[in-house]
Amino acid sequence: MTYLRPSFRHPEQPINELGFTRKDYEGALSTLCAGCGHDSISAAIVQACFELSIAPHKVAKLSGIGCSSKTPTYFLGNSHGFNSVHGRMPSVATGANLANRDLIYVGVSGDGDSASIGMGQFTHAVRRNVNMMYVVENNGCYGLTKGQDSATADVGSASKKGEPNPFEAIDLASIALQLGASFVARSFSGDREQLVPLIKAAISHRGFAFIDVISPCVTFNNNPASTKGYEYVRDHLAATGTVDYVPFKQEISASYAEGESKAVTLHDGSVVQLRKADPELDLNSRRSALRLIKDYRAKEQILTGLLYMDEDSQDLHEIIGTSKTPLQALTEAELCPGQKVLDKLNDSLR
Amino acid sequence: MKPTDVKDPEYFHRVVDCQYACPAHTPVPEYIRLIAAQRYTDAYMVNWESNVFPGVLGRTCDRPCEPACRRGRVEEEPVAICRLKRLAADNKADIQDRLPIIPKKKNGKRIALVGAGPASLTVARDLMPLGYNIDLFDEQPAGGGFMRSQIPAFRLPESVLNEEVDTILHMGVVSHFRHYVDSLKALLEQGDYDAVFVGSGAPMGRDLDISGREAADANIHIGINWLASVAFGHVQTVGRRVLVLGGGNTAMDCCRTARRLGGEDVRVVVRSPFEEMKASPWEKEDAQQEGIPIYDNHVPKAFLVEDGKLVGMRFEKVKAVYEDGKRQLIPTGEPPVDMACDDVLVAIGQQNAFPWIERDIGIEFDQWQLPVVDKDTFQSTLPNVFFGGDAAFGPENVITAVAHGHQAAISIDLFCRGESVTQRPPPGVTLVSQKMGIHEWSYDNQIEDDARYRVPHANLDQALSDRSLEVELGFDAETAFHEAQRCLNCDAQTVFTEKLCIECDACLDICPTSCLSFVVNDDEESTLRQKLRMPANNPDQAIYVSEDLATGRAMVKDENVCLHCGLCAERCPTAAWDMQQFYYSVSKAGEEVQP
Predict the structure, then answer these.
(1) Under 8 Å between Cβ of B129 and B101
(2) A267-320: per-residue pLDDT in tens?
(3) Interface contact B572-A37, CB threshold 8 A
(4) Residue B226 and residue B166 share a domain
(5) pTM of the model
(6) Interchain contact, B571 vs A34, CB within 8 Å
(7) If phi over 0 gives left and psi between -120 and 50 gives alpha, with beta otherwise, what is residue B151?
(8) A235, A304, B218, B389: which has the highest count of C-beta atoms within 10 A?
(9) Are B573 and A190 in contact (CB under 8 A)?
(10) CA-based nearest distance A189→chain B, Å
C-alpha cells in the first residue's frame, strides 16, 4: 500500500459561495506523526477558510521552524506560503503585511518557535498589532528534536522519557494580553467545535489575533505525567463559553438571555457571539481575562475559548497611517515622486 | 443506537457491495486483485469455486454486482467487474490439477438431475467430489441448458461454453442427452434415486394471441424456441424485414441474431417506455449500435395478413401514466401505426411448464402452477425432490441458477446423510489484519482515477456477416490492469477497537470522504445519521457505531462512500483503526454444520 490520499471526495460534499469544495483548501498529505494534534489544527484552518469562502489566492501562510511550522504545507495548497528562519516568522509577516495589506495573513508557529527562539520577535508583532492570525501549536515540547521540555511546559509536567520540568512555564496567551494583542483565545486541537469558529473570528478580526492551541505531541508528550496530553487536557478543560461566528448578511438566529451572552460586531459586519459559561468574563477587559486565566490555573484547569477582543482596535497600518493602496501596488512614480517633492517636504520641516 | 456487532459476518459482507449483491456471493475484490497481479488462473479458480462458469458469466452475466459497486457512488460508473472476469477466463492456464479430486469409491447415493442447465451442473459440481453417482438428463444434444440454446454464439462462443460444461461432465457425471424426461413419477419409481433435482428451466415462451395470429403462424416465431433452433442449426435464414416484440434480453438476442441471418430492416417494438425495458442497458446499446431501432410505447394490436401471408403488424401508441407507484399504459389517441414485415419474433416473456410432473405424487403446486419450493433449502413438498434455477421460482439468470444449485446441493447432501436440511453449514469467514509495517499494508490502495474503460468491439460489418463471431473482444492485459485498479478493495475492512482510541481526531481529519464522526450516540438511527459530519443519507448502506468512548461520544462511520484507502488506520497513533481483509465464502455441500 502507498501512503497516498485518493482524489475522490464525498459526492454530496458542500460547496461554498465561491463554488469551491473543502478539497480546494486542502494541502499536501501530512508527514507528521500519526495522531499529531497539529493535523487537527490544519483541518480546522481548512474548514474555517472553506466556510468563510476565502479565495485561496488571497491568503499568505507564514511559519518558522518546527513541527508546527511544517504544517502550512498541509493546508491551503493553493495559497501563498513562506517558511522563514526559526523564530523569525513575525518579522517576515510584518514585512509582508506592510507590503501588501490586502492579503489575509495566517501565521503558524510553535511553542519553541514563539516562546523560545522567537520570543523577541513574537512580542513585537503583538505590540504593533499586525493584522494577522497568529496560531501557536503548543505541545510543550520540542517534538522535532525528540521531545525536550519547551518553555511552555508546566512546572512538574514530564514528557515520555523525561524528568518533571523544574521551570516556570511561559503562558503565551497572558503575554499576548499584556502586550496589547487585540484578540486572544486559547483552544485545544481535539475540540474542533470550538476551534473552527475561533479561527473564523480570528481571521475576520482586524489586528493581531492570537490563538494558543494546545496540541498534544503523541510521540513524546502524550503520557499520563504530561499536562499537554490528550487525556490530561480533556480532564482539565474549561471554556469561557461557546463561540458562534455569524458571517455578515446572515441573520442571527440564536438568542440568549442578557448577561449570558455577548455579541461583538467585527469591522466587516460579521458577528462573534459568545455564550458565556463564566459570567465573570468581560470580553473587553484584559484584566478580566488575565485574572480568569490565573484563577482557572489555580484550580488546575485550562481555560479555553475566546478570552479577550477589542473589535475597534487599530492595526499597524492605521497606527502609522500607511497608504490605503498596498505598497506593492504603487508605481515607481508614486513611490519615488522626485526631487521637487523631496525639496517641498524638506522645506516644510525647516 | 446499539453498537455494531462486527462479529456477525453479514455486517462486513454487506460492506463488500459487489459480493453481497451477487446471488452466488463471489468474492469480487479478491479476484480483481489477482487479475491486477496477472494471476489469471488464480482469479479464475476463485470464480470457479463460487460461480462455476466464469468464462460464460464473464460474457453474459446480468451483473447485479455492477450497479451495487461502491465506485459507482463515488464517481459515475462501477468497475467493469464482469469483463474483468472474462479476462481471467481467457488468459488462464490449464486448471486440471486444481480441480477437486473425484473419489473412486462412491458413497452409494444416486442423484438424478433433470435438465442440463447451470443449476443442475452446479449441483453436479458440488456433489461429484463428495462421491455421489449422478445421472443427468436433457432433451438437447449437449449440456448447458439456456446458456446454449438461448445465448447466441456472437455473445458466447461455443468453445467457451463447452469447456466449462465439460469440466463438470468430466467429473464422471453420467449424461443422458436427447433424453426428455416425460414423467417424474416414472423417474422416481424406476430410477431408484436417493434424490432428484429439477433444473429444467422455464422452457415455454409466451405467445401473443391477437388478431391474425393463426393465419400468420408460418412467420411468427416464439423467441426462445427460435434462438434454440438457430443455435442447433435448424434455422439459418430469416426475412428481410423482421419485427421483434418485447423489451428483455431475449428480445435483444433475437434482434441481433436476426441481423446476422439476413434481416436488413430489423426493429424492436416494445410496450413500455425505453427506460423501463427489462433488457440490460448494455444489451440495448449493443443492439442499437448494430443499427436496430427500438420503438417504445407501442402496443401490438394485430398481425396483418394478406393472401394468407403475414405482411405487417399494427400497433397502438401509448404513454405511461404512474399512479401510486403503479404503471398504466394509456392510449395516446394517435392513429395506429402499421409496420410492414416478413417475420415476427415474439420475446415477451417465458414461463415455467411442468407437464411432465404428475400432480398426484406429492409435489404441491401453487395457483400459478409453480411448485411450492422452500426458498432456503430448495426442497419441494416431496422431500427427495429439489428444484433450482428458473424451474424453482420463474425466469431469472445464470448466476441466480448457480446460487440455487449450490444451496440445493447442500440440501441434497444433508438429506442423503439423513440430516435436517434446515440446519445449514455457516459461511466461511476470515478477517485478517493487512498491516505489515510502518506505511506498509498488504494491499494496494493506489486506485486508478480514470473513468471506466470500454471493451473494444469487433468491426460491425464483419460481426453482422458471421453469426458466430464474438462481438466483444475483451480487455487486453494492460487495459484490464487499469480497470482492475479502479476497484476500491471494499473487502479491506476498517475495523475499530474502542479501548485503543484516544480521540485525537486524526482519522476524521484524513478521511477523504468525511465518513467518520465522533458524536454522541442517539436512540434513533435516523437522528444519528443526520448528526454525522456528512449526513448518512443512503439508507441502504450501514453505519458502523462503536461503544461509547472516554468522552462519552461514539465513533460512527458511514459505510456509504468509504474508499477503503486505509488512511484512518495509517494516521491512527494507537492502531484503534486497522485494515483487515474480510473473506467470505458461501457454505458448500459437504461442509460441517457447527452447533
Answers:
(1) yes
(2) 888 888 888 888 888 999 999 999 999 999 999 999 999 999 998 999 999 999
(3) no
(4) no
(5) 0.90
(6) yes
(7) beta
(8) B389
(9) no
(10) 8
